[in-house]
Amino acid sequence: MQFIHKVYMVLALLVLILIGLVFTPVVMNQEKSRQLKATEEVTQSAYPGIDIVTEVVEEQDYYKAIHYPVFKQERLNIEINNYVAEETAVFLDEVNDQRDVLKERDWQAVFHLTFDIHALNDGVYALVFSSDSLVAGANGRQMAKVFMLDVEEGDYILGEALVKDSQDTRKAIYEGVLAELEASPAYKDLYFHDMLEEWIETTNFSNLYLKEDALVFTFDKYEITAGAAGSPDIELPLESFLHVLNPSWVSRLQLETEAMETENAEPDDTVINQDDDASEKAGDAVTAERHVVALTFDDGPHPENTSKALQLLEKYQMKATFFMLGSRIDFYPDLVKEVFNQGHEIGNHTWNHKQLTKITDKAIQEEIHSVDQKLQDVIGQPATVFRPPYGATNAHVESFLNVPSVLWTIDTLDWKTKSPESILAEVKTGLKPGAIVLMHDIHETTVEALELILPYLKEQGYTSVQVSEVLEMNK
User: Residues 6 or more apart from 349 whose CB is under 8 A from it?
Assistant: First the structure.
């Protein structure tokens, strides 16, 4: 009997061990999930009915930044959430497959997923997602996804419902896309006739979206062009292609009226004379004796963190430079105006944070100039300085610029440490007159660090000015 009792004790112990082995990973995964969700932030955008989720995750072997919309209608959220989850899973699977290579090269994989909003009318929007990842290979993965939806109705609008599908329609679209490819210096030597023909024969027009003045077809990398072309967007002028759309949608969206209103609109590529602008902002001559530095912030604006940073800078009477992403400017135009009106400098950090040394000339131009056009609309002038994402630049990239390209002398590593004390320590180590400090106003811990940095600069006799002034000083 005593023997049987001992057997039961051993069996019970084994059961407990097995339960622990089974449920411990579950608990760990749940804890990991909670930590991941803690990095998510939901903020209101400038577009009615659309909030923005921002998720930024940094690990030893990868960096992930995701922006996607949230709607009140759950039906609209399900499809977009599934798309975001699928794209993220593809990236993480590739990271897992290449983990040894990443460790060997001491390389951090990068994943960016963001979107642009094109508002038509009556709550109808086109959302164009851009997914870019670079893991261990020389060529990254670039994918595009289009969603057209009616927020008021809580429903998606399929591309095949927009188009009056027929052989004549497909022929007209094919000839229009072909003509645009032939006329484009970026694409004319990189597209493939057979791939274009296959696309027009099989497409359900899921890659079609409408802007006020154009039908736009967005293609994945390698879909109709060589990889060097990236993910091309082909625009067909609306006034010439209204006949391919269903009459009901032409009437509903009032496209004929809008096409007439925008027919003569041209983008404003005006660039401020940098020398005149710098001299106006600099005021007195900048000298090393003044002990000035430039605090700079990348990847914003962020509706909460940037606002807090502005309050701190005002408190200590210092200026900064905010290198903004075009996609974020589009989401928070009022905040951009506030930054500008408080006397801070606004820099161009590209539209979607793509690595410019790895994309086509056309894509480089779009990444840079689309930001300046948006700033022209929001604050009445383009950016006065530029910072390339990841600091990745070369002479060819610089040839697209009309303003100074600015890197940094102090990398606070705020994205990595998430420690206000460590960020302050990096500033202390590299501090000297004319220093340019790199931070990111998308992180709450960076704003907490700013509360330590600003009084420290004051104690040391330093003040922060716009980076253009420091560039002038360092000439």
Answer: 298, 299, 323, 324, 325, 371, 386, 387, 389
